[in-house]
User: Which sequence fits this backbone?
């Protein structure tokens, strides 16, 4: 059974930083491309960042490029999203899934809420 367990969200002021984690089980993580998605209230889910299986290649949503960094630890079956210079428009629930540009698994975790507000 595939499981994605996201953590690290919270309330942060504009300009602040957060580091999200996603622990993955039930797939061969070392050969899986991975990605982070987010869904703001009343909006659809959008791709934020993707990463290759070896971590050497990444892709980002235009509005987060230069502020967010996706990475992974293949020894711990975990991906990360370092988010710097956060803006109110980054407020959303963040999820991870396998696949780099589109979600591969129909299963989604509970996500982790990020709220950027003063």
Assistant:
């Amino acid at each position: 059974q595939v499981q994605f367990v996201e953590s690290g969200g919270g309330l942060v002021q504009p300009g602040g930083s957060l580091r999200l984690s996603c622990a993955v089980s039930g797939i061969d993580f070392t050969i899986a491309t991975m990605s982070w998605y987010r869904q703001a209230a009343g909006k659809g889910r959008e791709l934020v960042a993707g990463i290759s299986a070896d971590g050497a290649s990444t892709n980002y949503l235009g509005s987060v490029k230069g502020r967010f960094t996706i990475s992974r630890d293949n020894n711990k079956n975990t991906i990360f999203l370092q988010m710097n210079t956060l803006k109110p428009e980054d407020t959303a629930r963040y999820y991870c899934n396998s696949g780099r540009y589109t979600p591969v698994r129909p299963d989604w975790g509970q996500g982790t809420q990020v709220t950027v507000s003063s």
In short: The mean pLDDT is 97. Residues 19 and 95 are 13 Å apart (CA to CA). The two ends are 40 Å apart (CA to CA). Strands lie at 3-7, 10-12, 18-25, 34-39, 45-51, 58-60, 68-73, 78-83, 92-98, 112-116.
